[in-house]
Write a structure and sequence with these properties.
By secondary structure, the protein is of the alpha+beta class. It has ten helices and ten strands. The protein has a six-stranded antiparallel sheet with strand order 1-2-9-4-7-10, covered by helices on one side. The two termini are 19 Å apart.
Length: 270
């Protein structure tokens, strides 16, 4: 399904793969990239998982995957009519970081629906990009134009938490500190709030407690490591700051229907 049609940078900071009709040779392996990924679907339907959440990709949609996120095509959901492109890129390839920061902002919904007319214009830019094989600079500006076009026409989210900057700050702080700081009190103090007030904000805008946000991030990281790394369960437990393997296993099983070892073995044969 994925045919590489052009690689425009010798440092592997940018590449394009075409999603074609024939599903022979489709790779359903679980993947994790150090680059950003953009999937554009112009025809058909497909499903992907990202960090163990399932999302629908439909006609005239783009899908955003951030570096480090674990993702996988769902085998039973690949149709013979799915057509589109997959882009892998680094920030350094582009003339500006700003568009990437805005498009891939933390906790944004990974699917963007566009009108057919906007998507047709994006396909024209993609065609221009595919025909340009000599200049990395021109390729960078053409791809940057695609990102800017998507950014311009993406629909505004209805998530209310965007209206309170403190929620952004909290989510950023959790992303940076969740391995070493698992107490809601730490995050409340860092934001000059009481734990009670911070919980009021997260319940209002996210319908979750501060602790649940921290624990959800830890669980995602555990699943990433169990799925994609070669680390032992003991090493994962140590790296994520658990005092004992027993505590680690109990924590994981509390939020899942299986033990870490069972989850690891299940993903190995998926």
């Amino acid at each position: 399904m994925e045919d590489k049609v052009n690689t425009s940078n010798n440092n592997n900071s940018f590449s394009i793969k075409k999603i074609v009709k024939n599903t022979d040779g489709v790779s359903f392996d679980i993947r994790q990239h150090s680059l950003y990924e953009l999937v554009c679907i112009s025809k058909g339907n497909i499903k992907l998982t990202i960090d163990f959440q399932t999302y629908d990709l439909k006609e005239n949609t783009v899908y955003l995957i951030k570096p480090g996120q674990v993702h996988q095509w769902i085998k039973d959901e690949v149709t013979n009519t799915c057509i589109g492109y997959i882009f892998h890129f680094s920030k350094d390839f582009l003339p500006s970081y700003d568009m990437v920061n805005k498009l891939y902002e933390k906790n944004s919904f990974p699917i963007i629906e566009l009108s057919s007319s906007v998507f047709n214009n994006i396909n024209q830019l993609i065609s221009m990009l595919l025909n340009e094989k000599q200049s990395n600079t021109l390729c960078a500006y053409l791809f940057g134009s695609i990102l800017e076009y998507i950014l311009k026409y993406k629909k505004n989210t209805n998530n209310l938490y965007y209206k309170d900057q403190r929620i952004y700050l909290l989510l950023d702080l959790i992303e940076k500190e969740f391995i070493h700081e698992k107490s809601a009190l730490f995050y409340a103090k860092s934001l000059n709030l009481t734990t009670k007030r911070l919980n009021e904000l997260t319940k209002k805008y996210l319908n979750k407690t501060v602790s649940s946000l921290i624990f959800e991030r830890i669980i995602i990281e555990i699943k990433r490591e169990l799925t994609y790394s070669n680390l032992t369960i003991t090493e994962i437990s140590d790296n994520l700051g658990f005092n004992t393997i027993s505590h680690f296993s109990k924590f994981f099983k509390h939020y899942n229907s299986c033990s870490p070892l069972e989850f690891k073995n299940l993903k190995k044969y998926t």
